[in-house]
Amino acid sequence: MTVIAVFNQKGGVGKTTTSLNLLAGIALRKQRPLGIDLDPQAHLSGIFGIRPRLADESVYSFFMRQRPLDEVSQITGSGVILCPGHLELTKLDTLLGRGVNVITRLRAALKTRDVAPGSVVIDCCPLLGILSLNAIFACDLILIPVSADYLALQGAQQVERSLNALEPVFKRRLPRRYLLTRFDARRNMSSEVSDLMAMAFRADEICATRIAENVSLAESPARQLDVFRHAPQSRGARDYQALVEELAGAGFVA
Predict the structure, then answer these.
(1) 36 - beta bridge partners?
(2) DSSP string spanning 175-207?
C-alpha cells in the first residue's frame, strides 16, 4: 500500500481535480483505492456524490472519536472507497492541538492491517495544520499540483520550504513530485512557469506529465464524475492516465 498526499498551500491549483482523477485512474488498474477527504470544503466528497449530513458520518469522527476509517467509508461509482470530509474539520486544530499522537493518528491507522486494499490518496486542505500534517506524516509521496500561474508557483515554493523545515523530524528528505496543471502551450505564462519550476525544484522531483487545460476536466466535477467516466477519450483523461503510469513507474502506484 502506498499513500499519496495531494497538497499545495494555495487553493485553486487543481488539487481536488488531481485527487479525483488520480483515484479514478488507479481504480481503472483494477484496484480499489482509498480516498481520504481532509479538506473541510469536502469538494472531493461532493463530486463522488457523498455528502454526510452529520460530522460523525465523516472522517471528522475518526479524529474526534477514533472511529475506524472503514466505518466512515463508502464505495463510489468510480470504484473508489472514500472517507468523506465535513465542514466540522475546521475545528480540529482548536479541539485537538498538535501533539505527536494527534499529527500521527492517520499514519498509525493506515499501518493497520487490511485498512486499505490498494493505494491511498489524500486530498489535503491548503493550510498546514493538523489535517495536512496528518497527511504528510502518513504519506509515502507528496504530490504538489502547480497550476500554470505565478501565484501557484509561489504556493509550491512555500510547500518546498515547509517540507524542508520538517526534514529534521523525519531525518530524511520527504519524497515529493511537482505536477504542472492547467498548462496551455499557447500562453507564454505557461511556458514561463514551467521554466521557473525547473529552476526552483529538483529535476527528478518534477513530473514529466503535464495536465493540459481541458474543457472535460472542468466539466466533469459539475456532473459528479471523474474525467474517465465523463470523457474517456479526452485530453484530460489521457493526461491523468499518463500521470498514473508515471507514478506507477516510480513505484508509487501498484
Answers:
(1) 83, 122
(2) PEEEEEEEE-TTSHHHHHHHHHHHHHS-GGGEE
Residues 28 and 179: their CA atoms lie apart, in Å, by 21
Beta strands in the chain (DSSP E): 3-6, 34-37, 74-75, 81-83, 120-123, 141-147, 176-183, 206-212
pLDDT in tens, 132-170: 999 999 999 999 999 999 999 999 999 999 999 999 988
Domain-located, residue 254? no
Distance between CA 65 and CA 72 in Å, rounded? 12
| Long-range contacts, stretch 202-205, CB < 8 angstroms, 24+ apart | 205/176, 205/177, 205/178
Cα 72 to Cα 85: distance, rounded to the nearest angstrom: 10
Q: What is the longest distance spanned by two Cα atoms in the chain?
A: 51
- Dihedral in degrees, nearest 10, Cα atoms 228, 234, 236, 237: 30
Into how many domains does the chain fold?
Answer: 1
Span 98-135, pLDDT tens digits: 888 999 999 999 987 666 677 999 999 988 899 999 99
Q: Which three cell numbers stand for residue 17?
A: 481535480
Closest to 152 measured CA to CA, from 183, 193, 113, 124: 193
Cβ contact 128:162 at 8 Å: yes
Do 143 and 7 form a contact (C-beta atoms < 8 A)?
A: yes
* Domain encompassing residue 44: 3-249
**What is the distance between the alpha carbons of residues 14 and 70, in angstroms, rounded to a whole number?**
27
Residue 83's DSSP bridge partners are 36
User: What's 199's domain CATH number?
Assistant: 3.40.50.300
